[in-house]
Amino acid sequence: MGKRFLLVTEEWAGSGHRMAAQALAEELRARPGSESTRVVGGLETASPALRELSRFFYLGMLRYAPPLWQRLYEQEKIWSTTLRKPLGWWLSLKLTHELLIEEQPDVVIATHAYCLSALALAKQKMDKPFHLVSVPTDYHINHFWVHPQIDSYIVAHEQLAAVLTNKYQVSADKIHVHGIPVRPAFHEAGKRDKPGWRTKLGLSLDRFTVLVSGGEGGYGGIQEMLYELIKIQTPLQIIVITGKNAKLQMQLEAWIRLETSQHHVVFIKGYEPQMWQWIGAADVYISKPGGISCAEALALRTPLILYRPLPGQERRNSAFFMQNEAAVIVERPEEIHEVINRLRIREQWERVIEKMESLRRPEAAYRTAEYLLGL
Hints:
InterPro entries: Diacylglyc_glucosyltr_N (IPR009695), Glyco_trans_28_C (IPR007235), Glycosyltransf_28_UgtP (IPR050519). It is found in: Membrane. It comes from Brevibacillus choshinensis. This protein has helices at 16-29, 42-46, 48-64, 66-74, 76-84, 87-103, 116-125, 158-166, 184-189, 194-201, 222-231, 246-258, 275-281, 291-299, 313-323, 336-343, 346-357, 364-373; strands at residues 3-9, 34-41, 107-110, 131-134, 152-155, 175-177, 209-213, 237-241, 265-269, 284-287, 304-307, 327-330. By secondary structure, the chain is of the alpha/beta class. It has two domains: 3-184 and 362-373, Glycogen Phosphorylase B (Rossmann fold, 3-Layer(aba) Sandwich); 185-357, Rossmann fold, CATH 3.40.50. Strand 1 (3-9), helix 1 and strand 2 form a beta-alpha-beta unit. The two termini are 14 Å apart.
């Protein structure tokens, strides 16, 4: 009989956590040994009302009080204590009765930290204990992701493994440096070169190609970034993906039609389910520094330009990439002129690719699935 896998995630704080869970689920279902593999939203299952409240608070803080959110985020010990008790205790009861008793999982994998402590508490009370796996989906580790009841940690890089052992005293045999899970399609897409992707998508082969995206929600100052790219004198091929933000897509399409001094080739697109094609075709990728977005760019060897990282994990991700010289940060829109001109120089572009190579883990979902099936 195969193993029963339960992947617990959240989608109200960005799509990356859910996408990591789906990547693992896809790999687990693709090979023998999995009797059941299910992806669920933790708060959606335990308390839809708390999910909506958390979403409202999170988005409101990012929109109206980013500096305050940064200060709150840095109080990780306070948040971690809250998530362990009393909130964690209450959530553990809800998850046990609403989910775990019915599912009877052998392995529970968390790709978001909100319900992780609750799962750890539930594990202690279950008649049939499960193996609990923590999968941080960013390039940093904080206290939210750590608990004595966690059996395995899957992390993005050796630097994060060192933080777990040195700062949090996690036993080294619990830590596995597999990378952040991205969907198998990104792994496969990395085997095709950029001219191949441009040919497939009907794009110009000889123009320097800039991809701009703000995730599913179309966040991250896409509009102001496009305005600055249009001002660059040397002709570019610009692809803007607005995700599910239909209003932004219509605004940009209308603006481009009125732009008379246009000497660039510009494509405005909405939600693209096959993002690996566009990232693979681009010479540079202007994006929010979410963990999944960064891992996808690494898988496709596309240099990242990180624009205005949000407080919290995005700033930590940016710091990691800057420390490793594997990305460029742009804080003001007008800075993009100098950055694009620099990366158009082949030697500069290849230097960034070389730095990215040491961080790449495109096979992370495959390796993690193999590990989980072998427990």
